[in-house]
Design goal:
alpha+beta; 22 helices
Length: about 525
C-alpha cells in the first residue's frame, strides 16, 4: 500500500544528494545528537556538517538504501525550505523503512546485557516479583545487578535531547546502533527500562539509579506510551520537558509528532511565549486538556501577558518527578461564546459558585487542622494538599499495593515537616532495603509530599459546589471556583480560582473535593490572559 506520509525533499545515497519528493524510493532515517560545536563545509551547493558526512559514509557501507540525515538533507541556510522540512519531521520518521538511533556508547556487551535482561523478564521468577510488587527484585532482574554497561548506555547524550524522543518512537522498526554497528531493537531497551523506572520512583535520595535521577527514568519509560497511536500533550510535557534543546522553541516543536499537532508550523521568529500559547491552544482545540495538570506550576504574579495558565519547560523540568495520577481530558460540548482577554488561552470551565468561606493563611499543619474541623477525612485532605503534586491517595494505594494509606501518609508527611521524623534514607524507601512487605512503598510518597509546599502559606476556599486548597496570592475581592475539563479515572477534578475583579486572569489552581449535594454550572469558555 502506498504511504500516506509526507516525504523528505532530499536524501543522500552513494555520497550524492537525491530528490526524494518525486520518487517512492525507500529510505532509512537517522537519529543522532549533533556535535556540541559542529564544523561545517560546503558540499554539493549547500552547507553541511562534517559529522553528518562521516555518518553517511559510515552507514552507506552497510546498506544500499538512501539515508535521511537532517544536517545534510535539510538546507540549513534556506529558512523557508527548512521550516517546511521541519514541519514534516514526524512523517519523515514515520515513513522511513527503518530508524537508526546512533548511540556511540553501545558495544557488543551492551547488546548481550539488554537481550538477557529482556529475556529474564519472561521468566516465571520475574512475573512472581511483579505480582508481589517487589520493585527491588524486578529491578535486579532487568538491570542484572545494576550492570555498569547499562549505566554507560543510559549515560549517552542521545537520551537527553528533546528531538530524539520523537525520533525514537514514531517507527516500530527502530534500532539503537553503536559505532561498530552493534544493533539493539529499542523495544528491548524500553522494556527493561520499565522496572528500572519503578525502582527509581521508590527512591527519594540525592544519589541516582544507574547514574540517572528518577525524572530521567520517567522520560525514558514514557517512550513506551509514545509508541502508541497518540500521546496526550500533558504526558508528552512530562517526558520531553525533562530533556534539553539548544533552542527553547524546539521544546514545543519536538512534541508535535507524538501529540499529532503537526498543524502547527515551526517558526523560530515567534516569541517563545507565543510558541507555547499556540501549542496548548492547538491541543485544546482537539479536546486535549491534559496539559492543564502542569498549570499549577505557573507563578501568576510574574507570568507575562497571556501566560497565566501556560506551563513552560523550565518549571516542568525543575519538578522532582511527575505525579503518579493520570489526569484525563473531559469531553466538552461546543461553546460558541468566548469571553475574556484578547490574548491568551481559551479554557472551558464550569462554575461551582462564589467562594462562601475561606480560611486565614496558614502553614501545612494549620491547614490540616482546619480541614479536619471541616469534617474532611484523611483521603480528602491528602488529595486537597498533595493530589496534584504527588498523586491522589487512591492511586498511591494502587501503586504501593496497600489500602487506606491516606492517614499514614499524612502522619509521615507531617512528621517529616515538623521534624519529629527524620527524612533519612533508612526510612525513605523500605522497599528493597528491607524484606518486602506489601504497602511499605508509600513512604516515598510521604517524603515527596513533605517537600511540596516549602513553608508556603495556604488557604482553604469553599464554594457551594466544592472545596480547594491553594497557595495565598495577591488577588483580593470576591472569588469563584471553577471545575476544569480534566479529571482522574475516579472523577476527581482540577479546580481554577478566579477573582471577579480579574476575571480574565487565573488566580490559583488546585484539586477540588466536590460537594455531592451541589451541582455546577454549564460549560463556558474564557480566554485567560
Amino acid at each position: 500500500a502506498a504511504t500516506t506520509y509526507s516525504r523528505p525533499q532530499n536524501c543522500i545515497r552513494d555520497g550524492k544528494l537525491v530528490d526524494s519528493m518525486s520518487s517512492p524510493e525507500p529510505y532509512i532515517a537517522i537519529s543522532y545528537v549533533w556535535d556540541t560545536c559542529p564544523s561545517f563545509k560546503n558540499w554539493q551547493g549547500r552547507r553541511v556538517t562534517e559529522q553528518a558526512l562521516r555518518i553517511a559514509a559510515r552507514l552507506s557501507k552497510h546498506t544500499t538504501y538512501a539515508l535521511w540525515i537532517d544536517a545534510i538533507c535539510i538546507n540549513q541556510d534556506d529558512e523557508p525550505v527548512k521550516m517546511v522540512e521541519l514541519a514534516k519531521m514526524a512523517d519523515i520518521y514515520r515513513g522511513a523503512t527503518a530508524v537508526l538511533c546512533l548511540v556511540p556508547e553501545i558495544e557488543d556487551t551492551t547488546c548481550q546485557i539488554v537481550e538477557n535482561g529482556a529475556g529474564m523478564m519472561d521468566l516465571e521468577g520475574f512475573r512472581s516479583l511483579e505480582d508481589a510488587g517487589d520493585t527491588h527484585g524486578m529491578y535486579m532482574f532487568a538491570s542484572q545487578g545494576s550492570n555498569e554497561t547499562l549505566q554507560k548506555l543510559f549515560g549517552s547524550r542521545w537520551w537527553t535531547r528533546a528531538w530524539t524522543f520523537q525520533e525514537a518512537v514514531l517507527n516500530r522498526a527502530t534500532f539503537l546502533v553503536g559505532e561498530g554497528e552493534e544493533t539493539i531493537p529499542i523495544s528491548d531497551v524500553l522494556r527493561i527500562s520499565r522496572p528500572i523506572c519503578r525502582r527509581a520512583a521508590t527512591q527519594n535520595k540525592h544519589d541516582s539509579l544507574l547514574g540517572q535521577r528518577s525524572s530521567f527514568w520517567d522520560s525514558v519509560n514514557s517512550m513506551t506510551e509514545a509508541v502508541k497511536e497518540y500521546m496526550p500533550l500533558g504526558m508528552a510535557m512530562s517526558s520531553v520537558w525533562r530533556r534539553q534543546s539548544t533552542v527553547t522553541h524546539d521544546m514545543a516543536y519536538s512534541l508535535l509528532g507524538v501529540c499529532h499537532l503537526e498543524a502547527i508550523r515551526p517558526d523560530y521568529r515567534l516569541p517563545q511565549e507565543k510558541v507555547f500559547v499556540d501549542l496548548v491552544e492547538k491541543a485544546s482545540s482537539k479536546g486535549d486538556f491534559s496539559w492543564l495538570k502542569w498549570s499549577y506550576l505557573v507563578d501568576r504574579d510574574v507570568a507575562g501577558e497571556g501566560m497565566s495558565m501556560v506551563p513552560v519547560p523550565a518549571t516542568v523540568s525543575a519538578t522532582r518527578a511527575s505525579a503518579i495520577t493520570e489526569w484525563r481530558s473531559v469531553k466538552v460540548p461546543q461553546v460558541s461564546l468566548v469571553r475574556g482577554a484578547d490574548f491568551g488561552v481559551c479554557i472551558p470551565h464550569r462554575s461551582t459558585g462564589v467562594v462562601r468561606w475561606q480560611s486565614q493563611p496558614e502553614g501545612i499543619q494549620g491547614t490540616i487542622k482546619t480541614l479536619q474541623k471541616l469534617s474532611y477525612g484523611p483521603e480528602e485532605i491528602w488529595n486537597l494538599l498533595f493530589g496534584l503534586h504527588v498523586g491522589l491517595a487512591c492511586d498511591i494505594d494502587r501503586a504501593a499495593g496497600g489500602s487506606g494509606l491516606a492517614q499514614a501518609l499524612l502522619n509521615l508527611a507531617t512528621g517529616y515537616i515538623d521534624g519529629t521524623l527524620q527524612l533519612e534514607d533508612s526510612v525513605d524507601d523500605l522497599v528493597g532495603e528491607k524484606p518486602y512487605t506489601r504497602g511499605y512503598g508509600f513512604t516515598a510518597y510521604a517524603s515527596m509530599a513533605a517537600k511540596v509546599w516549602n513553608n508556603a502559606q495556604l488557604i482553604v476556599m469553599r464554594s457551594q459546589g466544592g472545596t480547594t486548597v491553594v497557595r495565598t496570592n495577591s488577588e483580593t475581592g470576591q472569588a469563584r471556583l471553577h471545575k476544569l475539563p480534566v479529571e482522574s479515572y475516579r472523577g476527581t477534578c482540577l479546580c481554577l480560582v478566579v477573582h471577579d475583579n480579574t476575571r480574565s486572569r487565573a488566580s490559583a489552581m488546585g484539586v477540588m473535593v466536590e460537594n455531592d449535594k451541589a451541582g455546577s454550572g454549564s460549560w463556558q469558555v474564557t480566554r485567560f490572559s
